[in-house]
Amino acid sequence: MAGGRETCLTLIGFILTCLKMVTPEIPTIDQAYSKISNSITVEWATVPGATSYLLRAEDGDTVIETMVANSPGTVTGLKAATLYEITIRSISAAGRSQASPPKQAKTVLAAPILEVSSPSSDSILVQWEAVYMAIGFSVSIMRANGLGSIWKENTTNTSLTFTSLEAGTLYTIKAYAWNANGIPGDDSTCNQRTSPRAPANIQVSFDSGALKASFSWAPAEGAFNYTVMALSDSSELTCSTTLSSCTISSLQCGTEYLISVLASNDAGSNKSSSAVTLKTVACAPGRVMIQEEPPGHLSVTWSDVDLGDYYVAFVKSDDGLEVHCNTSLTQCNFLSECGFTYFISVFAYNKAGQSPLGDIFNYTTAPCCPSDINPVLVSSDRVEIVWSPVRGAELYETKAVDGYNVVECNDTAPACTLSALECDTKYNITVYSFSEVRGSNMSCTPQFITTAPCSPEIKNVSRDAFSMINVHWRSTNDDATYTVTAQGEKGQYQCSSMGESCTMGGLPCGSVFSVTAVAETQAGRSLPSYSVPLETAPCCPTGLTVTQITQSVINVSWTIGTVAQTHVVVLESHTGQSKCHTHQNHCLLGCITCGINYTVTLKAISATGLAADCSFQSYFSSACCPLGVKLYRLGPNGIRIYWQASRGSANYSTDLYGSKGIFTCTPSAGRSFCDVAEIPCGDVYTVMVSPVAETGLKLTFCPEKIYSVTCSGSILGMGKLFFSWIN
Fold it and tell me: What residues have CB less than 8 Å from 254, skipping those under 6 apart?
C-alpha cells in the first residue's frame, strides 16, 4: 500500500511539471503609450522561458496583432487619435500563455498635411487641413542650413504666415497638432524658399538701327532667373536670362513700350515696382507724293507719323548730286531739270534716332530730245539707228517714212533696227524720246537715208574642162558692181563684173566653198545672195607605198587626201588585173604573180562622187621563192645550201638558225647555191632561202626547212648526205 501511494505522488508531480512546461506564465503590462499616430508601444516584465510575445490591439472594429522578441514592443498600423485595448501573451517552446489583463492606450494625433508658399520675398504662408481630435497647432520655422534662430507660433487656425524673412532663402517648416490633454501628435516637416526681391535700377539702351533694346538691372536677392517684359498697346515681347541683362529684338517703330523685369526662383516671382518707358524711333513716313508743278519744280509731301519730332527729305539725282531739306511740316520743295531721274526718301526723327528706311521713290522729269543720231546701214532691207542715251527717256520711238509707208520700232535701248525696208529706197527717219509720265518729245529732227541695193540671185555655178568656175546671177539694180566670193576653209576667191556673170579659177582641190554674190552702189552694199555650195575634186593622196606581204599578196598604202572618202586601187599587168575599193588608207591585193612588172593606179573619190585620177606607178613583184632546197657536206665542217631558182633573175640570201648560232651566206649573182665553211654538228637548223628585193630588203615569207646535222666518225665524200630532214 505504501509503495502504491509513493508511485501516485510521483506521477502527480510529473504531471504538474508538465503543466508548467506547457503553459508559460502570463505577462503583466507595465505601461502602454503612443508617440507616433499609427503605433502604440507596450512595456512589461520579462517572463522566464518565453521566446517571444504576441501583442494585440483592439478598437472595437479591428484587431491588429504583432509578434515581438522582448519588451518594449510596438504595435503598428493603427489609426490616429484612437483608443485601443492592449493585451499580451508570452510564447515559448511549450506554447503560448493566456492573455494578460488588458490595458488601454490612445494613439496620438496625426501630423498635419502642410501646403507652403511664399506670397512675397519676406514671407512664407503655411496652410493645412484640420486634424481629427486636434484643438491646437504648433508651427516653427528656421533656416534650412541651421543658421539663425527658430521662430515658433501656436494657433488654433489652419494657416499661419511668417514675415520678416530673408528673400530667396530656403527655410525648414515643422508643424504638429495637440489634443485636449495637450499631448502633441506627429509632426510634418517641409522646406520652402522665399521668393526673390523685385529687380531695381532698370537701365535701357536702344539700338535704333537694329530696332532692338538691351536692358540691365541690379541683381535681385534670391533670384534664379529674370524675365524682361516689353508691353505696348498691340504686343508684348519678352526675353529671359539668368544674368542681370537681356536684349529684346524685333521692336516696332513708332511704339511706346512699358518695361518691367520679373525676378523668379522656385518659390515664385516678384515684379519690379516701377516700370520704365521706352519710345522707339518713329516709323518711316508713308503716303509720299511727288509732283512736278510747274516744270522745273518738285514738290514732295508725306503723312505725319507717331513719335516723329521733325522730318528730313533727301532728293538725289541720277548724276549723284543730293540735296535735302529739314522741316517740322510734311512738305518740301526742290528744283528739277528735264531728263533727270530723282530718288526721294523721307525720314522721321525723334530723341531715339532716325526712322528706318522707308520706300525710295523715283521721279523722272520730261525726257530731252535725242541727239547725235547716227543711222547705220546694215543691209538693203534693214537700218540700225544708234544715239546717245538721253535723261528721262524710258522708251524711244523710231519712224521711217518713204512717202506712203511707215515703219516703226519702239525700244528702251538707245538703238533701233528698222526692218522690212525696201532696197534702194530713200527714207525719212525720226527718233522720238518717250516717258510714261511725260509722253513723247515731238520736236526731234529727222534724218534721210537711202537703203543699199537689192541682193543679186545666183542662177547657176558651173565648171569647164579647165577647172574654171563660171557664176551667173540676176539683179534688178542699175549701175551696180557685183562681186562673187567663194569662201572656204582654204581661203577666199573672188571675181567681179558689171554684168551678170564672172569666172574664177585656181581653186584648191578637196575643198568645199560657199559661193555668194554682193551688189554695191554709192548707197552701200547689198546683203549677200543666198549661198550656193561648190565642191572641188578631192586631192590625190601622197606617199603611195607598195609592200610585198606574201609571194602572191601585196599591200598598197597611202596618205588620205583632203575630202577623199573612198579610194580605188588597180594593179594591172599582161597576166591580168587586181582591184580593190576601200574607205581606209591601205588595201590588200591578192593573186599576184611573182617576178613580173605591174602598173599601179589610184583614184580618190569624195562623198558626193567627185573623182580624181591620182597615181600611176610601176611595180615589179618580188622574185618567186626557190624550190628544192637541199644541204650537202663540204669537207669536215662545211655545208653547201642548194636550191632551184624560180622564174626571172633574182638575188637570194640564205640563213641557218640553230641553238649554237645563226649562219648566213649570200651567193654570187646568178648562182643557186652558197657555202658555209664552219658549222657545228650535233644541232637542229632551220634553213630559209629568201629572195632579196632591189632595195636590199630580204623577203621573209618563203617556207622554212628544218635539218638535223649529226656528227659522224667517218669522212664521207662530196655529195654524201649526212643530214636528216625533219620537215
Answer: 280, 281, 282, 283, 305, 306, 307, 308, 355
**Amino acid, single-letter form, for residue 191:** N
- Residue 521: per-residue pLDDT: 86
The answer to whether position 509 is within a domain reads: yes
Please give the Cα distance from 213 to 230 (Å, whole number): 10
For 656, the grid coordinates are 641557218
Q: How would you list the strands of the sheet with 469-474, edge to edge?
A: 457-463, 469-474, 501-504
* The C-alpha cell that represents 125 in the structure block: 504662408
Q: Measuring CA to CA, how many Å separate 152 from each of 160, 168, 200, 384?
A: 11, 21, 33, 107
pTM above 0.70, yes or no: no
CA distances, 287 to each of 304, 308, 585 (Å): 9, 15, 84
Contact 313, 361 (CB under 8 A): no
Rounded Cα distance between 346 and 289, Å, is: 11
pLDDT confidence band for 101 (50 / 70 / 90): very high
3-state SS, one letter per residue, for 432-488: EEEECCCEECCCCCCEEEECCCCCCEEEEEEECCCCCEEEEEECCCCCCEEEEEEEE
Distance of CA 63 to the CA centre of its chain: 80
Q: Count of residues for the chain? A: 727
Number of Cβ within 10 Å of residue 274's Cβ equals 8
**703 within some domain:** yes
Q: Please tell me the least confidently modeled range out of 75-79, 463-467, 543-547, 557-561.
A: 463-467
Task: Name the domain boundary from 194, 210, 241.
Answer: 194
Give me the residue label for grid cell 513716313: 285
Q: Is residue 654 situated within a structural domain?
A: yes
Identify which of 689, 633, 682 has the alpha carbon closest to the alpha carbon of residue 660.
Answer: 682
Containing structural domain, residue 259:
200-279
How far is the CA of 184 from the CAs of 151, 172, 367, in angstroms?
A: 18, 19, 104
Which cell numbers in the block locate residue 465? Answer: 574642162
Do 558 and 606 belong to one domain?
yes
The CATH number given to whatever domain includes residue 651 is 2.60.40.10
Asked if residue 664 and residue 713 are part of one domain, the reply reads: yes
| Tally of domains within the chain | 8
Most distant CA pair in the chain: distance in Å?
193
- CA dist 88 → 51, 60, 77, 106, 425 (Å): 13, 17, 17, 16, 142
Q: Is 675 helix (H, G, I), strand (E, B) or coil?
A: strand
Instruction: For residue 163, give the DSSP letter.
Output: -
Residue 20 pLDDT more than 70?
A: no
Cα distance between residue 272 and residue 203, in whole Å: 12
What whole-number distance in Å separates Cα of residue 142 and Cα of residue 152?
Answer: 9
8 Å CB contact between 52 and 35: no
Residue 232 lies in a domain: yes
pLDDT band at 401; cut points 50, 70, 90: very high
